[in-house]
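Friendly challenge for the regulars: who can give me the structure tokens for this chain first? No prize, just bragging rights.
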Amino acid sequence: MGEAIRDRLQQRSFESVHQEALLSLLVCADEFNRRMDAVCQQYGITAAQYNVLRILRGAYPSGHARCDIIKRMIQQAPDVTRLIGRLEKAQLVQRGASEHDGRLSITVITAKGLALLDSMETAVAQIHQDVAERISERDAKMITRLCERLYGA
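First reply, four minutes later:
Bragging rights claimed.
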């Protein structure tokens, strides 16, 4: 079926078309993860930190509790508390007590964090543009539907 995956893995055949599809998804995800890692590295953050900043930008100015950040992350990070701590040390986010529940810590993106995301926008948009140049909107919608069937409830 797919020549590219066979060439990439240097494998002539697969156990099933399902195995081939899974391996294709994993190789594709790795490609885009590496590209995103490279962009983030240029700006002194990790892809997981970028993900948290992106989530917090969407909740600005109110912010999110750690548990809400975890639910929204693209890739689950092992220690979100430390990740947020590193962002706070870099003054990209700030933490404070919730107005509704003093036991709950709310993280909010700072002006410096928003500025960092703005500066990264062109490089991140280029990754999105590369996808748009390779597949049609119809194919993109199909990929989304298929992936949702695989990971969705």
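The first strand starts at residue 64 and ends at 65. The helical segments are 3-9, 17-42, 47-58, 66-72, 80-89, 111-134, 137-151. Your move, everyone else.
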